[in-house]
Every structure is written in structure tokens, then in C-alpha cells.
Amino acid sequence: MSGFSVSWLDLREPADHAARDPELVSTLVSYLQGDTDIAPIIVDLGAGTGSTLRALTAMGAQRCVWRLVDHDPALLNEALRRHGQAEIVEDYQADLRDVAALPLGGAALLSASALFDLISADLVDSLVARARQQSTVVYAALNYDGRTHWTPAHPLDAAVLDAFNRDQHRDKGLGPALGPDASMTMKAALEKAGYTVLMRDSPWQLGPEQQALVSELIRGIRAAVTHGYGLSDAALADWQTFRLSHAGSGHCLVGHIDLLAWPPGV
Ligand SMILES: C[S@@+](CC[C@H](N)C(=O)[O-])C[C@H]1O[C@@H](n2cnc3c(N)ncnc32)[C@H](O)[C@@H]1O
Q1: Which CATH architecture has domain 6-149+174-205+255-262?
Q2: Least enclosed by CB within 10 Å: which of 10, 36, 52, 167?
Q3: What was the pLDDT predicted at 1?
Q4: What's the 193 CA to ligand 1 centre distance in angstroms?
């Protein structure tokens, strides 16, 4: 199983939707709606419960065929439950590492959100090669970029962030993870394959209204850096207590990058 629960994905979705760069989405939706005779096929990798579907549909993507790909059947079932009536949704329970088997035939768009920082550089190369073979547009939203900035500050913030960013490279089942290098690695791979790449900042800007998400984020960071990074339990406990005590009053910026890439001739 992936370890991504419906409740965690639901908790982060409002922040994700607020963070997505609207200009890239609007450009993408215009492209998808450009030919009124053909229902564009969108293949969403690591689709979870359908966050990309919701984001693009809310911005005007209509009459699309959504192929949602994930290895977690519970998340796919939830996506179908939410969207199977109103949208054309095809669910594919598959492992992204088997790139040749991904259902990309006829796809106008290969999309993903909050995914590419989890995968390896080799997997990016394989996915880009398959997308290029059939001139598929690529949209990868919400790739973590290594920035996490807290207000108010705590003396351990820099050390915790350094450890967290190193932990982001840990293999989560999709090879040595790109973590904060995801967007630049994708840009290089896509440009080498002839794509024109647009990138925009899409940070989470979290305040007191997102206290529940901020609290989960703090607990997740603490768990990620507990072992192997030389931070003492006492120091981390102090950091966590301080951070949680400000989760309802402080602010947090988590940097992400959205990427939209056009193959030659599209
Ligand atoms: C951070 S979640 C993002 C979900 C969704 N795109 C969103 O923005 O809410 C990453 C997704 O990748 C899926 N995933 C992780 N490893 C996978 C694999 N090896 N094959 C297919 N899907 C995988 C997880 O099940 C999860 O749904």
C-alpha cells in the first residue's frame, strides 16, 4: 500500500488547489478544450482520489476521459465513488515503475500532482521518453522544491529542514527519490527530449486557518527526521512542541513548483 490515506489527501487538497499556478492550468485547459470534436484523454499518474481531475474540472476542463493510475485500490475506489457518475473515469491499478504498461495510448495529456518528488531520475527519463514518443503534453504540479519557512522562527528550523530535505531523497518505492530536485531534473529531461518547459512557483502559504494541516505537517517532518540525521530526541521534542504551539497563529511557506511542457509541434 502507498501510505497515502484518503484523510491526508483530503487535508492537503485545499492548500494544493490554492497553490496550483492558475495561469498554467488555464493555458492547459484552453489546449484541452481546443478541439470540440474530440474528448481529450488525460492520464493522471499517482492519481490518489482524483485531485488533478477536480482542479482541472473546476477550471473548465470538460468532456475529458480521465485515466486514473494508482497502485492503491482504496484511493482509486474513492476517486470512482466521487467522480464515476459525472465524469468519464477509467481506473487503472498499476505500478508506475512498469512504464511500458502505462495506459498512455492516445493521451493528449500526461498529468500528475505531488508525485514527481517521490520518483527517481531514471523513472523520469522513462516517462518522458514514452510521453515524447506520442507527443503527449506533460503537466506536473506541486513538486516540493526544498523550501520550508516558518514564522515565528525556532533555532532548530535550519537543521530540521536540512535533515528533512535529505530524507526527501529516501526511496519510497519508486527508486531513489528526487525530492527537491524533481522539477529541475524533469526540466532537463523534457528539454533534452525537445519539449518547451514552463515552470511556476506554487507554494503552500499556510496560516492559522490551516492549523490541522500544519499540525500534521509538523508531525510528519518530526517523524521523517527522527532517525539517522543526528538530531537529539530532546531537541526535536522541543522543536515539535514549539511548532505545534504556533500552528494556530504562525505561518508556514512550503515551496512547490508546477511544470507544463509542450512537445514539438503541439
Ligand atoms: C502524494 S500522493 C498524490 C495523490 C494525488 N495526485 C493528489 O495530488 O492528491 C502520491 C500518490 O502516488 C501513488 N503511488 C505511490 N507509489 C506508487 C506506485 N509505485 N505506483 C502507482 N502509484 C503510486 C500513491 O498511492 C498516491 O496516490
Answers
A1: 3-Layer(aba) Sandwich (3.40)
A2: 36
A3: 40
A4: 25
